[in-house]
Amino acid sequence: MQFDFTDLPAADRYRLLTNFIGPRPIALITTRAEAGHDNAAPMSFFNVFAHEPPIVIVGFSARPDGSEKDTLSNLRRTEEFCVNMVDMELADQMILCGVNFAADVDELDFAGLEAAACTQINASRLQRTPCAMECRIERIIDFPGRAIVLGQVVEMHVRDDCLDAQGRYVDPSVYQPIARLHGDNYIVSDRQFELKKPAEMSAHEVAQLAPSEPEKP
Ligand SMILES: Cc1cc2nc3c(=O)[nH]c(=O)nc-3n(C[C@H](O)[C@H](O)[C@H](O)COP(=O)(O)O)c2cc1C
């Protein structure tokens, strides 16, 4: 089957894109509401796109009635937000935060999620998340009814048990984030495998570094 995206209703484009581009990691985004309480909402149009500067990107759509989601309104106002990664322990509470509550609802309270203070931004992070990233807005790209937000990570909090003894690499037996597939289907990263480029291929690599220089990712 083929689909001409230049001539396809938006709902069909959404279905096809989200059915095939997956799994998508879930950012449970916490922001500060104007009234002062915590706001939390899951976003799976999310990923990291650079480390220098450290940029994460989140895609927002409007609610079915066309109104702007609270998370987007809050981060426009405060210019700050926190990304909390989600594992199985947080899955049931994450989905509750996906309910389109009125702006005066504190989703952390509602879902029974414990908040901790952020260090550099005015928002809470989740106490139990494996990893929380405090972000400042780098830019917002607006489209009719949606927005793409670039956030610069300014602080990362990692739960100690998620790292190896040296505190450098993630422990894959502990850190197993969930991600969204199509519709209401999710996947947990509990079946990981290693895949290395064959050593003999190194002769074909262009722009090799000199042996003394550290390789950048
Ligand atoms: C797993 C999951 C992923 C979601 N991803 C997005 C997303 O990427 N962008 C978006 O606009 N809404 C997304 N939503 C819907 C919002 O989470 C939902 O509309 C939420 O109620 C918005 O809350 P807020 O008004 O407090 O921001 C997602 C929902 C779920 C359950």
Largest pleated sheet: 7 strands, antiparallel
**Classification by helices and strands:** alpha+beta
Order of SSEs, N→C? HEEEEEHEHHEEEEEE
Assign the CATH superfamily.
Answer: Electron Transport, Fmn-binding Protein, Chain A
Q: Would you identify the CATH architecture?
A: Roll
Q: Which ligands, by name, code or SMILES, are bound?
A: flavin mononucleotide
CATH topology name, in short, is: Pnp Oxidase, Chain A
Q: Order of strands side by side in the largest beta sheet?
A: 3-2-6-9-10-5-4
Q: What is the total tally of β strands?
A: 12
Instruction: Determine the mean pLDDT.
Output: 95
Q: Count of DSSP helices?
A: 4
Shape: globular
Number of domains: 1
What level of helicity do the residues show? 10-25%
What does this structure look like?
One of its GO terms (molecular function) is oxidoreductase activity, acting on the CH-NH group of donors, NAD or NADP as acceptor. It comes from Sulfitobacter alexandrii. Pfam families: Flavin_Reduct. This is Flavin reductase. Residues 20-171 form the Flavin reductase like domain. With 217 residues, the chain is α+β, with helices and mostly antiparallel strands. It has a single domain, classed as Pnp Oxidase, Chain A. Helix content is 16%, strand content 33%. It contains four helices and twelve strands. It has helices at residues 10-20, 70-78, 88-97, 107-111; strands at 24-25, 27-32, 38-43, 46-51, 54-61, 80-85, 115-117, 124-126, 131-143, 146-158, 178-180, 186-188. The chain has a seven-stranded antiparallel sheet with strand order 3-2-6-9-10-5-4. The longest helix has 11 residues, at 10-20. It is globular. It starts with 9 loop residues before the first helix and ends in a 29-residue tail after the last strand. The model has no long low-confidence stretch (mean pLDDT 95). Bound molecules: flavin mononucleotide. Residues 26, 39, 41-45, 59-61, 69-71, 95, 98-100, 180 line the site of flavin mononucleotide. Flavin mononucleotide (FMN) binds next to strand 3, strand 5 and helix 2.
